[in-house]
Amino acid sequence: MAKTIMFNPLGGVLSTRSEAGQGTSGSYRLMIFERDGFTIVPPSPIGGQFKAGATNVDPLPGTAMHNDGRFIQMLASVGVFEPERAYALHLAIVQDGHDLDHEDDTGTDEGGGPTHESDKIIVHLIAKPPQAAMNARNSNSVSLLDVLKAEALEKLVETVAAALPPAASAPAAKKTAKKTGGNS
Length: 184
Hints:
Largest sheet: 5 strands, mixed
Number of strands: 9
Distance between the termini: 64 Å
Helix content: 10-25%
Structural class: alpha+beta
Number of helices: 3
Mean pLDDT: 80
Strand order of the largest sheet: 1-9-6-3-4
């Protein structure tokens, strides 16, 4: 079951911070899915190596608003400590330099191998309602209306650009200008 983590849609870019407890080594991959839970968001998978004392921070694609409803699943392989066979994996969601919340997978590995494989960490990103986001934003951020206007304008420009024919060559444009009496 996915843990729901709420974020400010007007805030900065969302990032993840992936860590393995006790400085164990290993590797991780983050799978990012659209709100349907099946469509993979490029450049997913994002990943790296766990190293002693290292913190892995990975920005999520798009603006904070683009991540509303998306799911993130951590797939990890991490070393276990003998004789207890303990392991710990942590995934935090970060915005504007602050941890919003985190999800963990900790315990004792029951297998006999040197590593623990995990696919249990899943988070569901949900934008705070507009009023809550407006109350949470600082004086330097833009309004929700500004964000929505910018996204609508971006989509309009893309639609118009896709509908236009390829640009005419310069000589053809000059001929048209002469026939209509315009300047080139």
